[in-house]
Design a protein that fits this description.
Elements: H1 27-34, E1 38-42, H2 47-56, E2 63-68, H3 71-84, E3 90-94, H4 100-110, E4 114-117, H5 124-129, H6 131-151, E5 156-162, H7 171-185, E6 193-199
Parallel strand pairs: 1-2, 1-4, 2-3, 4-5, 5-6
Helix pairs in contact: 4-6, 6-7
Protein backbone atom coordinates (compact mmCIF):
# COMPACT_ATOMS: atom_id res chain seq x y z
CA UNK A 1 0.00 0.00 0.00
CA UNK A 2 1.78 3.09 -1.26
CA UNK A 3 1.07 6.49 0.24
CA UNK A 4 2.13 9.82 -1.21
CA UNK A 5 3.06 12.87 0.79
CA UNK A 6 4.26 16.37 -0.08
CA UNK A 7 7.86 15.61 0.95
CA UNK A 8 8.13 13.19 -1.99
CA UNK A 9 7.30 15.88 -4.54
CA UNK A 10 10.37 17.43 -6.12
CA UNK A 11 10.55 20.54 -8.21
CA UNK A 12 11.26 19.49 -11.80
CA UNK A 13 13.54 21.66 -13.92
CA UNK A 14 12.94 21.61 -17.67
CA UNK A 15 16.60 20.62 -18.12
CA UNK A 16 15.88 17.22 -16.51
CA UNK A 17 13.66 16.33 -19.46
CA UNK A 18 16.22 17.31 -22.09
CA UNK A 19 18.32 14.16 -21.97
CA UNK A 20 21.56 16.10 -22.42
CA UNK A 21 23.39 19.10 -21.00
CA UNK A 22 21.83 22.43 -22.02
CA UNK A 23 23.75 24.30 -24.71
CA UNK A 24 25.26 27.54 -23.44
CA UNK A 25 25.02 30.37 -25.97
CA UNK A 26 28.12 32.32 -26.94
CA UNK A 27 26.75 35.65 -25.72
CA UNK A 28 29.76 37.67 -26.89
CA UNK A 29 29.62 36.29 -30.44
CA UNK A 30 25.85 36.79 -30.65
CA UNK A 31 26.19 40.35 -29.42
CA UNK A 32 28.84 41.12 -32.05
CA UNK A 33 26.56 39.71 -34.76
CA UNK A 34 23.45 41.66 -33.73
CA UNK A 35 24.46 44.72 -31.71
CA UNK A 36 23.68 47.93 -33.61
CA UNK A 37 22.77 45.97 -36.76
CA UNK A 38 19.58 46.02 -38.82
CA UNK A 39 17.98 42.60 -38.43
CA UNK A 40 15.17 41.13 -40.52
CA UNK A 41 13.11 38.24 -39.17
CA UNK A 42 10.74 36.61 -41.66
CA UNK A 43 7.80 34.68 -40.28
CA UNK A 44 8.18 36.89 -37.23
CA UNK A 45 4.72 36.09 -35.85
CA UNK A 46 5.22 32.31 -36.01
CA UNK A 47 6.34 30.03 -33.21
CA UNK A 48 10.03 30.04 -34.18
CA UNK A 49 10.17 33.54 -35.68
CA UNK A 50 8.61 35.16 -32.62
CA UNK A 51 11.05 33.42 -30.29
CA UNK A 52 13.96 34.58 -32.46
CA UNK A 53 12.63 38.15 -32.13
CA UNK A 54 12.27 37.79 -28.33
CA UNK A 55 15.94 36.80 -28.15
CA UNK A 56 17.30 39.28 -30.71
CA UNK A 57 15.75 42.35 -29.04
CA UNK A 58 17.92 41.65 -25.99
CA UNK A 59 21.10 42.23 -28.03
CA UNK A 60 20.42 45.87 -28.96
CA UNK A 61 19.85 45.76 -32.71
CA UNK A 62 19.76 49.18 -34.36
CA UNK A 63 16.50 48.05 -35.95
CA UNK A 64 14.55 44.81 -36.07
CA UNK A 65 12.09 44.25 -38.90
CA UNK A 66 9.22 41.90 -38.13
CA UNK A 67 7.93 40.52 -41.43
CA UNK A 68 4.91 38.24 -41.71
CA UNK A 69 1.87 37.82 -43.93
CA UNK A 70 -0.36 36.82 -40.99
CA UNK A 71 -1.85 40.19 -40.06
CA UNK A 72 -3.66 39.19 -36.84
CA UNK A 73 -0.78 37.16 -35.45
CA UNK A 74 1.66 39.96 -36.27
CA UNK A 75 -0.54 42.53 -34.57
CA UNK A 76 -0.84 40.36 -31.45
CA UNK A 77 2.92 39.90 -31.32
CA UNK A 78 3.51 43.62 -31.73
CA UNK A 79 1.17 44.21 -28.77
CA UNK A 80 3.21 41.71 -26.74
CA UNK A 81 6.45 43.56 -27.50
CA UNK A 82 4.83 46.89 -26.63
CA UNK A 83 3.56 45.51 -23.31
CA UNK A 84 7.11 44.34 -22.50
CA UNK A 85 8.60 47.68 -23.59
CA UNK A 86 10.71 45.93 -26.25
CA UNK A 87 9.27 47.52 -29.39
CA UNK A 88 11.58 50.57 -29.42
CA UNK A 89 13.56 49.57 -32.52
CA UNK A 90 10.93 47.35 -34.12
CA UNK A 91 9.40 47.90 -37.55
CA UNK A 92 6.34 45.76 -38.24
CA UNK A 93 5.87 44.87 -41.90
CA UNK A 94 2.99 42.91 -43.42
CA UNK A 95 4.25 41.23 -46.56
CA UNK A 96 4.59 37.98 -48.48
CA UNK A 97 8.05 36.56 -49.19
CA UNK A 98 6.84 35.23 -52.56
CA UNK A 99 6.26 38.79 -53.86
CA UNK A 100 9.62 39.89 -55.33
CA UNK A 101 8.66 43.56 -55.80
CA UNK A 102 7.46 43.88 -52.21
CA UNK A 103 10.58 42.18 -50.86
CA UNK A 104 12.83 44.33 -53.07
CA UNK A 105 11.26 47.48 -51.61
CA UNK A 106 11.81 46.13 -48.11
CA UNK A 107 15.50 45.31 -48.72
CA UNK A 108 16.09 48.58 -50.56
CA UNK A 109 14.52 50.63 -47.76
CA UNK A 110 15.89 48.88 -44.66
CA UNK A 111 19.05 47.20 -46.05
CA UNK A 112 19.07 44.43 -43.42
CA UNK A 113 22.51 43.24 -42.38
CA UNK A 114 21.34 40.05 -40.68
CA UNK A 115 18.41 37.94 -41.92
CA UNK A 116 16.70 35.20 -39.91
CA UNK A 117 14.46 33.40 -42.38
CA UNK A 118 11.75 31.53 -40.47
CA UNK A 119 8.80 32.12 -42.83
CA UNK A 120 7.49 28.80 -44.12
CA UNK A 121 4.54 26.51 -44.43
CA UNK A 122 5.32 23.74 -41.98
CA UNK A 123 2.27 21.54 -41.32
CA UNK A 124 2.90 18.21 -43.03
CA UNK A 125 -0.67 17.00 -43.74
CA UNK A 126 -1.81 20.45 -44.96
CA UNK A 127 1.11 20.67 -47.36
CA UNK A 128 0.40 17.19 -48.71
CA UNK A 129 -2.97 18.59 -49.77
CA UNK A 130 -1.52 21.92 -50.97
CA UNK A 131 1.85 21.10 -52.57
CA UNK A 132 1.89 24.16 -54.84
CA UNK A 133 1.73 26.48 -51.82
CA UNK A 134 4.48 24.55 -50.04
CA UNK A 135 6.82 24.87 -53.02
CA UNK A 136 5.87 28.50 -53.71
CA UNK A 137 6.54 29.70 -50.17
CA UNK A 138 9.24 27.33 -48.93
CA UNK A 139 11.29 27.17 -52.14
CA UNK A 140 10.51 30.22 -54.26
CA UNK A 141 10.05 32.56 -51.26
CA UNK A 142 13.44 31.47 -49.91
CA UNK A 143 15.04 32.06 -53.32
CA UNK A 144 13.57 35.59 -53.46
CA UNK A 145 15.07 36.42 -50.04
CA UNK A 146 18.48 34.86 -50.72
CA UNK A 147 18.85 36.67 -54.04
CA UNK A 148 18.01 39.97 -52.35
CA UNK A 149 20.35 39.29 -49.44
CA UNK A 150 23.15 38.85 -51.98
CA UNK A 151 22.12 41.90 -54.00
CA UNK A 152 22.02 44.15 -50.92
CA UNK A 153 25.16 42.64 -49.32
CA UNK A 154 23.59 41.30 -46.13
CA UNK A 155 26.29 40.05 -43.76
CA UNK A 156 24.49 36.89 -42.63
CA UNK A 157 21.49 34.86 -43.71
CA UNK A 158 20.23 32.20 -41.31
CA UNK A 159 17.85 29.74 -42.95
CA UNK A 160 15.58 28.01 -40.44
CA UNK A 161 14.91 24.51 -41.72
CA UNK A 162 13.44 21.35 -40.21
CA UNK A 163 14.45 17.83 -39.24
CA UNK A 164 11.88 16.69 -41.81
CA UNK A 165 14.29 17.83 -44.56
CA UNK A 166 16.46 14.79 -43.75
CA UNK A 167 15.66 12.13 -46.37
CA UNK A 168 12.24 13.76 -46.84
CA UNK A 169 9.15 11.59 -47.15
CA UNK A 170 6.63 14.39 -47.60
CA UNK A 171 6.09 17.57 -49.60
CA UNK A 172 6.89 19.89 -46.70
CA UNK A 173 10.20 18.17 -45.94
CA UNK A 174 11.14 18.02 -49.63
CA UNK A 175 10.37 21.72 -50.14
CA UNK A 176 12.57 22.64 -47.17
CA UNK A 177 15.37 20.38 -48.45
CA UNK A 178 15.29 22.17 -51.81
CA UNK A 179 15.45 25.49 -49.94
CA UNK A 180 18.48 24.19 -47.99
CA UNK A 181 20.24 23.22 -51.23
CA UNK A 182 19.64 26.66 -52.73
CA UNK A 183 20.92 28.27 -49.53
CA UNK A 184 24.09 26.15 -49.59
CA UNK A 185 24.64 26.79 -53.30
CA UNK A 186 24.60 30.55 -52.64
CA UNK A 187 27.49 30.40 -50.16
CA UNK A 188 30.13 31.64 -52.59
CA UNK A 189 27.85 33.85 -54.70
CA UNK A 190 28.63 37.05 -52.81
CA UNK A 191 29.66 38.55 -49.47
CA UNK A 192 26.75 37.08 -47.49
CA UNK A 193 27.50 34.23 -45.07
CA UNK A 194 24.76 31.59 -45.26
CA UNK A 195 23.88 29.34 -42.33
CA UNK A 196 21.24 26.58 -42.25
CA UNK A 197 19.84 25.25 -38.99
CA UNK A 198 17.39 22.38 -38.61
CA UNK A 199 14.85 22.69 -35.84
CA UNK A 200 13.18 19.55 -34.56
CA UNK A 201 10.45 19.38 -31.98
CA UNK A 202 11.58 21.93 -29.41
CA UNK A 203 11.29 21.29 -25.69
Amino acid sequence: NCELNFKQIKKVNIEYLLGRKPIKLDEKNISQTINNKTVLVTGAAGSIGSEIVRQVVNYNPAKIILLDQAESALYDFEMELISLGKNKNAEVVVGDITQPDRMERLFNHFKPQVVFHAAAYKHVPLMEDNPTEAVNTNVYGTKVLIDLALKYNAERFVMVSTDKAVNPTNVMGASKRIAEIYTQSSQSAGKTKFITTRFGNVL
